[in-house]
Amino acid sequence: MTQYWLMKSEPDECSIDDALAAPGATVPWTGVRNYQARNFMRDAMQVGDGVLFYHSSCPQPGIAELRAAPELADLLILQRGNRLSVTPVSEAHWRFITERLLSR
User: Fold this and answer.
1) Beta strands of the chain (E only): which ranges?
2) How do residues 20-72 score in pLDDT, each as one tens digit?
3) What per-residue string of b and e applies to 20-37 under the rule 16 or more CB within 10 Å gives b?
4) Which of 39, 54, 62, 76 has the most CB atoms within 10 Å of its CB?
5) What is the pTM of this model?
């Protein structure tokens, strides 16, 4: 069963361009300090899962547009105090983001 994820990184750690330029478009993700984020990656993520990736701590973070959509109000990453670098995304949220926001 496909699961969906939202992952974030600071652009100076590993930019999207760096990841795409890497052999096989894969890079090791080191420095995950939160046990819950680590456990998501270690125990729950599978090859073939859907992943949305954005940069944090940059002049125009990719998450800003998500906050404007009332349909995503209960998206885990948008909850106050959530700072996880890996969060699950429901299928409904995944479809809204990929079909309505990314298709523009």
Assistant:
1) 4-9, 50-55, 86-89
2) 888 887 887 776 788 999 899 999 999 999 999 888 877 776 668 888 899 99
3) eeeeeeebebeebeeeeb
4) 54
5) 0.83
